[in-house]
Amino acid sequence: MGISKALKEKFSGFSEDDRSRLVRMGWEDRTTFDVIEAQFGLSPNEFVQFMRSVLAEDVFNRWRRRVSQQGHLKNEKTRGFKVTRFKCSRQSIDGITKGWK
User: Fold this and answer.
1) Which pairs count as long-range contacts for 16-20, CB under 8 Å and 24+ apart, including other chains?
2) 35-39, 51-55, 74-78 — which is least confidently predicted?
3) Can you tell me whether residue 97 is helix, strand or coil?
């Protein structure tokens, strides 16, 4: 299964920083597909194709299995909670982590 020409052009429009951010967002449980679509304009199916194109096959299979098993975490409508902060609870306002050496 290949990627369409339009989708390849869309993926090539992302900078290297955007690509690494998308991969990190894909692995994070707190980031839903809705957030990825709002920030980068990728539907869930396009995002899966993006991950398939940038990850090695075994890594992609591991990620896909994780998303399938814990799919309720990546879909905002089916998750049982709302994420309100994107910061560690031990982190203070000025960015210094408290309690860790």
Assistant:
1) 19/54
2) 74-78
3) strand
* Residue 18 phi, psi dihedral angles, 5° rounding: -65, -40
Neighbours of 12 (CB within 10 A): 7
Q: What is the pLDDT of residues 77-92, one digit of tens each?
A: 665 556 555 555 555 5
For residues 15 and 66, what is the distance between their CA atoms, to the nearest angstrom?
26
Compute the distance between CA of residue 90 and CA of residue 19 in angstroms, rounded to an integer: 28
Name every residue whose Cβ is closer than 8 Å to that of residue 42 and which is 6 or more positions away in sequence. Answer: 10, 22, 36, 50
